[in-house]
Design goal:
170 residues; single chain; alpha+beta; Nucleotide Exchange Factor Grpe, Chain A, domain 2; 3-stranded mixed sheet; 50% helix
Length: 170
C-alpha cells in the first residue's frame, strides 16, 4: 500500500492574472493546439471570476459596516434630540453648559463617523433626504425651499439614516 501525499498549496498563495501572463499564454497558443486555447480561456475566465469575487466581497464588507454604523447611529438619534430640546428649554445655568458640552462631544463623534445633519431652513427641498409634513405659501422664500425644520435628518455618507421632517414653502 502506497501512501500518497497530497501537495497542499498554502492559503497565502494566490494566482493573479496580469496582462503580461495572459499575453504570454496567448503568444504560446497556436491554431493547431485547440486544447491549449481551451485551457487559456478557462484560465482567463477563472482569473476574471476571482477578481469579481474579490470586488464583490469588498463591497459586501463595506455595506455591512455602513449598515451596522447606521443602525447604531439611529439608536442614538433620540438621545441627541432630547439633548437639543433640553438646551433650548433650559435657562442659563451650569447644567445647560454641561448638556451643551455633551451634545458638542457627541456631534464631534458623529463627524468622525462621517454622520452629518441634513435639513436646515433655507436649503432646497430634496425628497430623497427630506420628508415634507407641511406646506406654506411664503413670498419671502423661494420655490421648494425649507421654511422650518421639525426634526433634523442625518446622513451617513450617502446613506440616509433618518429623513428630516420639514415644512416646505411655495
Amino acid at each position: 500500500m502506497k501512501d500518497k501525499k497530497k501537495k497542499e498549496i498554502p492559503e497565502e498563495e494566490t494566482v493573479e492574472a496580469t496582462e503580461e501572463t495572459v499575453a504570454e499564454v496567448c503568444e504560446e497558443s497556436t491554431p493547431e493546439a485547440p486544447a491549449e486555447n481551451e485551457w487559456h480561456d478557462r484560465f482567463v475566465r477563472l482569473a476574471a471570476d476571482f477578481d469579481n469575487f474579490k470586488k464583490r466581497s469588498a463591497a459586501e464588507k463595506n455595506a455591512a459596516y455602513t449598515n451596522a454604523t447606521a443602525d447604531a447611529v439611529a439608536e442614538l438619534l433620540p438621545i441627541i434630540d432630547n439633548l437639543e430640546r433640553a438646551i433650548s428649554a433650559a435657562e442659563d445655568s451650569p447644567m445647560k453648559a454641561g448638556v451643551e458640552m455633551v451634545l458638542t462631544q457627541t456631534m464631534k463623534a458623529f463627524e468622525n463617523l462621517n454622520v452629518f445633519p441634513v435639513g436646515a431652513p433655507g436649503d432646497p427641498f430634496d425628497p430623497q433626504i427630506h420628508n415634507a409634513v407641511m406646506h406654506v405659501e411664503d413670498d419671502t422664500l423661494g420655490e421648494n425651499v425649507i421654511a422650518e425644520v421639525f426634526q433634523k435628518g442625518y446622513m451617513l455618507g450617502d446613506k440616509v439614516v433618518r429623513h428630516a421632517l420639514v415644512k416646505v414653502a411655495n
